[in-house]
């Protein structure tokens, strides 16, 4: 038996008794960019991290190849309806580091005998990458002390947001988690500049680019 891969308990294999394969495997991914409008100028793009991966493929189910089409279709429907997330294995390795969920299925019943038995079918599936959430950080005395220290720290000045919206992150860089947004006209107290990012205190940061805000020192 040659095992091609698997998704959950759906095993893709080729042997003398059984052939279960897929075709037209397509993997799509993109990056996330936020567009901020600037009065009388072209919009400013801000990178917001990588997007999710989409997988699309079609499974071939034929009774003459040792497959029970309805049984395999039932497996896929169960995975979809229960919201199960699984790695898509190709060969001996995952196709991507994260798991996938089935978001859409389309079943084409190709051949039905005189007794109503399904002899062959093709199932087209759409999968989306599922990123498991990380455990939340519990509030500690150290975190409380940091916030207290920030409140006693002398401010660098005040910024005024000049675009539609800007991300507020939990670190000085675009790869850090988005905590919220600052909107046009909003004024924020800043305490220092770190790696071209303003520290807002309490572990919050916003870009120091003059394309997004103006700074009034003092």
Automatic annotation (TrEMBL):
Residues 165-200 form the SH3b domain. It comes from the Bacteria. It comes from Lysinibacillus irui. The lineage of its organism: Bacteria, Bacillati, Bacillota, Bacilli, Bacillales. This is Phage tail protein. It holds the Pfam family Phage_P2_GpU.
């Amino acid at each position: 038996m040659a095992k091609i891969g698997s998704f959950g308990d759906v095993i893709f294999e080729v042997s003398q008794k059984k052939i279960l394969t897929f075709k037209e495997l397509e993997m799509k991914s993109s990056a996330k960019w936020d567009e901020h409008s600037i009065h009388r100028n072209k919009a400013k793009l801000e990178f917001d991290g990588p997007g999710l991966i989409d997988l699309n493929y079609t499974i071939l189910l034929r009774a003459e190849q040792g497959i029970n089409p309805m049984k395999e279709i039932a497996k896929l429907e169960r995975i979809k309806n229960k919201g199960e997330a699984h790695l898509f294995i190709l060969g001996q390795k995952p196709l991507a580091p994260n798991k996938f969920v089935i978001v859409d299925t389309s079943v084409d019943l190709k051949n039905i005998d005189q007794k109503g038995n399904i002899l062959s079918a093709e199932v087209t599936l759409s999968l989306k990458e599922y990123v498991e959430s990380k455990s939340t950080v519990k509030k500690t005395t150290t975190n409380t002390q940091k916030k207290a220290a920030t409140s006693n720290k002398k401010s660098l000045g005040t910024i005024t947001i000049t675009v539609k919206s800007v991300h507020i992150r939990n670190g000085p860089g675009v790869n850090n988690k988005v905590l919220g947004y600052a909107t046009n006209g909003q004024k924020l107290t800043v305490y220092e500049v770190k790696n071209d990012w303003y520290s807002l205190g309490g572990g919050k940061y916003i870009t120091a680019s003059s394309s997004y805000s103006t700074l009034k020192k003092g």
